[in-house]
Amino acid sequence: MGRSIAGELLENGHEVLLIDKAPTAISVERVPQAEWLLADACEITSLDEAALERCNVVIAATGDDKVNLVVSLLAKTEYGVPRVVSRVNNPKNEWLFNESWGVDVAVSTPRLMSALVEEAVSVGDLVRLLRFSQGDANLVELTLPPEAALAGTRVGDVTWPEDTALVTIIRGNRVLVPDSDDALEVGDELLFVAAPAREEQLEDLLSVRGEPS
């Protein structure tokens, strides 16, 4: 997973350092543009060698939740890394992956997979895709159902719930940055960053039962 993420980031013009303690995992030929370090990322001496303080983002992507938590905590508290993203392998451990452990964004692989299944089969139901620990917010998706009350309403005419932001409209093969003059259409996939306490309001607003603002 680490190599796959690194490859994507390198394609987008970022500098990447991969750290792994297993010699068999060091595969320079597979990601030749990345820097590599054979070390234990849970050790301060290793992170000093990696000069973690120069990183803008640290991604803890191992298959061990304990390791990911330790790396996240060290990255945030010892090196002041601005953004820490951590993989959650066991859904039972999700409650730990928050700002207390230095995690800004927790990516739960099982939850994300189930969310993508829900997103594919659910219309009109709110689906949580990601949780942002810092700021207490979620990335949520809802597909506007047929006969939704807000279908045809301009984005700028909708009174969205407090602590909620519409960030993207996916319409067919197009990804739209929402504009106040854009009209919502049945079948639009709407992505929001929303406080958990506002999710029910948001779902009601966008459902068949909702009332246009």
From TrEMBL:
Residues 1-107 form the RCK N-terminal domain. InterPro entries: NAD(P)-bd_dom_sf, RCK_C, RCK_C_sf, RCK_N, Trk_Ktr_HKT_K-transport. The keyword NAD does not apply. GO terms for molecular function: monoatomic cation transmembrane transporter activity. It comes from the Bacteria. Residues 127-208 form the RCK C-terminal domain. PROSITE patterns: RCK_C (PS51202), RCK_N (PS51201). This is Potassium transporter TrkA. It comes from Streptomyces abyssalis.
